[in-house]
Amino acid sequence: MTSLALSAYRAPELRLPRLLAGVSYYHPTGLAEHEELYGPLPLPAVSPRQGRTWRPQPRRLIEVIERSGLTGRGGAGFPTGRKMRSVAARPGRAIVVANGAESEPASCKDRLLLTRAPHLVLDGITLAAYAVGAEEAHLVVHGQETGLIDGLENAVCDREALGVDPVPIEITGIPARYVSSEQSSIVQYLNGGPAKPTFSPPRPHERGVKGRPTLVNNVETLAHLALIARYGDGWFRGVGPPAEPGSALVTVSGAVNRPGVYEIEMGTPIGHVVTLAGGPSERLQAVLVGGYFGAWLPADLAWPVPMTHAGLRAMGGAMGAGMVIALPITSCVLAETARVVSYLAEESAAQCGPCMFGLPALADALIELAYCGGRGGDVKAIATLVPLIESRGACRHPDGATQLVRSALTTFAADARRHDQHGPCHGVSRAPLLPVPADEERAWDWT
Ligand SMILES: Cc1cc2nc3c(=O)[nH]c(=O)nc-3n(C[C@H](O)[C@H](O)[C@H](O)COP(=O)(O)O)c2cc1C
Ligand code: SF4
């Protein structure tokens, strides 16, 4: 274990909450309150008011992050320290991009952090910039969210007035589209282009913003980094399983009594996560785990499954950005899936075949099965389309959508057969459960 804790600010004894320890649901934590809670940024002193004694080397900070086992909280779960090391190793001054766009309609953990604990994220950006030797940093959110942008700009101004961040942090609003927050879309947008994914390689860590090595991290990942830099890798590993340690924010919604954002130990069983959210508000048939690139699991099988990348992969699912949506028995899983796939089809950048032709055809076939059916042939049509779409796009968008469809057809094979043979069930007339942004919340262009 390596502790980086400053002597005056000992690692908190409490195990959880960690990221949400200082969060008030009523107002953002200001800079003074933030420093009272966590102590100043553990960096070499940058202004006379910060008489610090500890001087971490950037290399040492990366080693600590590697030892902590922190993985990205934006979806793919890539090891954060390894990503930082590869950016730091590239020639040329690096750039740091914090991804706070949170395009998943069912997730609000990043918004909670950005609105209630902005300085934790801003500390993480500054520490990441220090570790990889960056001289430029961006925090990216959806451009429509003007209130959020104003709040973040105020937080950055407060820090500028006190000289907290050696590297300036610029807030940028990107178009509110599902694929605009994929990392290559953000890089292309910051380079002056449309916010659409680009073919890789080169990946952002090789050639990103301005052609420089670019570290893209989710804002929750950076908030964890801010705590690990203060309290050490051993502290971070104090919760969660050794292979996927630490805590994570999850957004729980659907048929639960207290929907919201919860901080859990990695590895917490899904059933316990639902209990944290007040338990089911109705009898459940399934849970959707991992968001719209995730998978449906039958409620009884899902209950003991640990919330880890490995645990959910073993069930054919995905951790994604940590969403759990509880589906009651009165809903129709096929209608819910059809609506989401229609939304994903509309949200594609329509620049690769599987998105231009495959996703709209898949959405139409699912709508037929869910709302019409009774002709015997829709399930076969869907099963034929799925492999034609997979592994052919420039980004994971089409594969994410097909994973959701595969899980619906496998987990609810009997329901799909019933729709196919006898027509829709009663659930199709129930109000939709899975959130899809309203037209006025969506951007319809890419610039
Ligand atoms: C279609 C698509 C949308 C994405 N949207 C987000 C997002 O809203 N927020 C996010 O942090 N990562 C998103 N990602 C993942 C990012 O591309 C990138 O992997 C992530 O920001 C890296 O941060 P991490 O390593 O800290 O997880 C998305 C990926 C895809 C394929
Ligand atoms: S796969 Fe789809 S979303 Fe991804 S780049 Fe191609 S067209 Fe765009």
Instruction: Calculate Rg over CA atoms.
Output: 22 Å
Head-to-tail CA distance between termini: 46 Å
Tally of helical runs: 17
- How would you classify the helix and strand content by structural class? alpha/beta
N-to-C SSE series?
Answer: HHHEHHEHEHEHHEEHEEHHEHHHHH
Residue-averaged pLDDT? 91
Helix content, binned percent: 40-55%
Q: Write down how many β-strands occur, each being a DSSP E stretch of 2 or more residues.
A: 9
Report the biggest beta sheet as strand number plus sense, adding barrel if it closes.
5 strands, mixed
Break the fold down into its secondary structure elements and pairings.
Blueprint: H1 31-38, H2 58-68, H3 80-89, E1 94-99, H4 109-116, H5 118-132, E2 134-142, H6 146-162, E3 169-174, H7 183-190, E4 214-218, H8 219-231, H9 233-236, E5 247-254, E6 260-265, H10 270-276, E7 284-289, E8 295-298, H11 299-302, H12 309-313, E9 323-328, H13 333-347, H14 353-372, H15 378-389, H16 397-411, H17 413-422
The structure holds flavin mononucleotide (FMN) and iron/sulfur cluster.
